[in-house]
Amino acid sequence: MFNLESLLRENIKRLVPYSSARDEFKGQASVFLDANENAFGSPLPVNYNRYPDPMQWPLKYKLADIKGVPPQNIFLGNGSDEPIDLLYRAFCNPGGRDNVVLCPPTYGMYEVSAHINDVTIRKVSLTSEFQLDIEGLQQAIDENTKLVFICSPNNPTGNSINRSDIELLLNNFDGIVVIDEAYINFSRQKSFIQELTEYPNLVVLQTLSKAWGLAGLRVGMAFAGEDIINVFNKVKPPYNISQATQELALQALDNVARVNEWIREVVVERDLLSAGLEQLPQVLKVYPSDANFILVQTTDAKGIYQYLTERGIVVRDRSKVELCMGCLRITVGTPAENVQLLDALKSFNLKTETSVSA
Ligand SMILES: *Cc1c(COP(=O)(O)O)cnc(C)c1O
């Protein structure tokens, strides 16, 4: 049985959270002398002299509307990195007592954040189809496993993880299943955020950094049952989302139609780019993608990477990553950028052909 209290670290259970000036007075007033702010204003065209809403309610209400999830089921962080770190800090005793299960190849922050928090990592590699190894997971998970991270669509492979496998895990694991849906907007698969009432052990991560085009603002979202959201709120720094970020994100969220149009364009471009890449002799395999990037297995990842950077084009070399031998990860760009990439790759062939014949 899932029991949040028994999963929490003792120090977090006992923790008396910081109570800010904004927490202690919530009524109407005109003279605010409670937070040691600069009452005169800010040396800017716009004033930022007041501390922001620690709970970001207006932003959460608007997101709730867009996502179809109650605002009390939303946590906002300084990027997705913040909820990832908070999960370790709240649930995993450091120094070898508790463990987290990761499924490489996947997003690197789960591992880095575990190391920062001194949490033991158990790795269960994805299968050659980049799907969950259910038997391996069964063997790796024990009574000290607090978290399992699943990235779907997965970075860097681009595929979605089979829904039935994730459901099996949600139904049979009494720790927390974190599903990272950073790329869900580009996916054919359905999000898990409508399943929060079904699974008390579910945390879904999303972000404004990818489809929403706001990577520079740093807004990550965690969706979960209210009890888990309360844990996040207890542990987070009081003012973790700045006033400027809250205002800009609110403004951005008025443009859902624009973002949806971009998503359709990216998906069209992704399929064109995949088809173009498949034509190239130095490309061995183009993996199917449910994201805004494509994993491509090549004959010479390092050489192609180098060649492209000399032409001012940067892709991600993933050839040293488990199960990704020879692979580059390529983000879908604008139509012009994708043509530029394909043209550069075509002349890479000419180069190798001439060098072979010479
Ligand atoms: C890009 C990405 C994120 C987003 O991180 P932010 O900190 O919100 O920018 C999260 N998870 C995965 C798998 C990603 O690739």
Describe this structure in words.
It catalyses: L-histidinol phosphate + 2-oxoglutarate = 3-(imidazol-4-yl)-2-oxopropyl phosphate + L-glutamate. This is Histidinol-phosphate aminotransferase. The protein has 358 residues and is an alpha/beta fold. The chain has 2 domains: 4-254, Aspartate Aminotransferase, domain 2 (3-Layer(aba) Sandwich), CATH 3.40.640; 257-357, Alpha-Beta Complex (Aspartate Aminotransferase, domain 1), CATH 3.90.1150. Helices cover 38% and strands 15% of the residues. It contains 13 helices and 11 strands. A 7-stranded mixed sheet has the order 1-7-6-5-4-2-3, with helices on both faces. A 4-stranded antiparallel sheet has the order 8-9-11-10, with helices on one face. Helix 5 packs across helix 6. It is globular, with a radius of gyration of 23 Å. The mean pLDDT is 96. Bound molecules: pyridoxal-5'-phosphate.
